[in-house]
Amino acid sequence: MTTRKPIIAGNWKMNLNHFEAILLVRKLAEHLNAAQLDAVETVVLPPFTDLRSVQAAVEDDKLNIKFGAQDVSQHVSGAYTGEISGGMLAKLGCSYVVIGHSERREYHNETDELINAKIKAAFAAGLTPIFCVGEGLSVREESAHVGHCTAQVDAGLDGLKEDQIKQIVIAYEPVWAIGTGKTATPDDAQEVCGAIRARLAEKFGADVADAVRIQYGGSVKAGNIASIMAQPDVDGALVGGAALDAEGFASIVRFP
Ligand code: PEP
Questions:
Q1: Which parts of the chain register pLDDT below 50?
Q2: Which CATH number covers residue 139?
Q3: I want to staple 213 with a disulfide (CB 3.0 to 4.6 A). Which of 54, 60, 84, 235 is the partner?
């Protein structure tokens, strides 16, 4: 059985200018010692405009913190006004990119097909996708959440190679728990994360399923991280609001 390294990623969403970004990343590093940063892969996901500054802070201070973007174009280059390519992100030192966040699905009408194309574009540029899936409240109320999420996983991973699937990070984020203060219970998180892993095993084999890291996201904070991380199929967290405070985010990273 593979040992999956926990991964805690902070999605800053559309918050913090590049000066504030530098301060936050430096403060975060001050709150975490080398052993803590070694035990848990720690990732920040600032807005595009902060990436160059975060890269400089991380490289200048030799911080053991990874960073990435919140979205990527499915295209390589060309006449796509306002878009940012995977190659541009890779050149800035990004390791990760969030793809298919529920806010992009909802406010930018991102479809499963587009998300699949963006995942392929990210891999082509050498980035690791943090691929988000999750159900809205009405789907949960109909108890259709497991099938909904595994169908999103199927669509997002369509046509990927085995080594890419092993590398991807999947974030299960129930939409009703994002930014609402309503956290799924640890059992709720395990139910869907476990079903995603079972689906991966069914389609790609136990070896692949065993390697994939699956995060939970939705109102994660210092007070609930340990019980969520205690679930066997939860390998990390995607954190929104609580990632904007250095000490708060550090205390999530220090969960073990
Ligand atoms: C998110 O946006 O991915 C998220 C999980 O947000 P929050 O932690 O604020 O619920």
A1: none
A2: 3.20.20.70
A3: 235
